[in-house]
Amino acid sequence: xxxxxxxxxxxxxxxxxxxxxxxxxxxxxxxxxxxxxxxxxxxxxxxxxxxxxxxxxxxxxxxxxxxxxxxxxxxxxxxxxxxxxxxxxxxxxxxxxxxxxxxxxxxxxxxxxxxxxxxxxxxxxxxxxxxxxxxxxxxxxxxxxxxxxxxxxxxxxxxxxxxxxxxxxxxxxxxxxxxxxxxxxxxxxxxxxxxxxxxxxxxxxxxxxxxxxxxxxxxxxxxxxxxxxxxxxxxxxxxxxxxxxxxxxxxxxxxxxxxxxxxxxxxxx
Length: 269
Prior knowledge:
Layout: E1 19-21, E2 27-29, E3 52-56, E4 59-63, H1 72-121, H2 125-128, H3 131-155, H4 157-180, H5 186-206, H6 212-221, H7 223-226, H8 230-268
Antiparallel strand pairs: 1-2, 3-4
């Protein structure tokens, strides 16, 4: 079993059937299968998935509210729904990171070409910028491009996005089977729940876990259900920006500033 939140001991994933993609590439669970849907008697009484703490003497125990009902069907329903959503968010995040990764590496490479061509097309550059300084800039950018390219290639964002999407689709199928089984007699339902639970555990063992950020971004898609406050929304969005975009903006800004600095030295000289 993997961790999604430091307070929980179960993995929460997201669903891939019945989802829609917005303009930013984020997946949103649609009404069918959403625990907030009024026509869902099996899940409407689930409290938001915010761990509450109870203290007994000097010891503190944490128990997710959905476990307090002591209803395995509700617990499994909730885990499949959240797992499904978080994995779709993870797939979308990895797709965006793959895009920014390629863009940043391309800009680094283009900057190296531009810097290397400056002395041949702008002969006056040698009067304002020494060959040593230019060579140092080109060498530094070359090392940065090499290290950054190897690091981003090792991350394999495109492959991760595909695997997260596959996992979400598989969990979504299990979720649909679970919802269809709620009208079965109790004796039949018990066997179905056990098979779904076993298949769910098998899926988690075959796919890597998503980041805690993915789960938090999924919670933002259902702010009323999870009771996400305004400050928490800003905090999660800020972390998402730092984690998925800021570092790439920094990488792209370094060579651009270098090129502008050289151009400024030429024009001022």
